Amino acid sequence: MQDIHGTTILVLRKNEKTVMIGDGQITIGDTVMKGTARKVRKLGDGSVMAGFAGSVADAMTLFEKFEEKLREVNANLKRAAVNLAKEWRTNKVLRNLQALLLVADKDSILLVSGNGEVIEPDEDVLAIGSGGSYALAAARALIRHSSLEAEEIATKAMEIASEICIYTNTKFTLETLGGEKQ
Fold this sequence. Notes:
Glutamine Phosphoribosylpyrophosphate, subunit 1, domain 1
């Protein structure tokens, strides 16, 4: 089986608004298999957003598991993320899942991995996937040196990533917490 590539997920917070955006491209080898995948979604009661990079089937399993953990801890994002990371690292079936999760609520942004890591960034911006470094760099620059709103920064950063990363397209899914969704 050839490697599956093709995700850029970016999350940022600005002016009390948290935005998560992901591209829609799924690539196997050198072939684009799908251009409109939805890799970002709201979970639970809509107060948490999650996005994935990696195997789609594995990510769907992780979305379900994370939503279960959220219910167990009354939507406490950090506790749910730590509980998922523990189970992911120690469960024989989950341990083989090939994906990363970005999760966020109005207060926190976290990266969750199968190695047991739960990482909160120093700045209110984080990205994963094949174009993650490009989107992260663009978003940091736009946050620091522009007056753009959160949704505009996210979209422009993803557009820049799509111009550099061949595994990232411009069919974006954008979710927002706080303020009005555009």
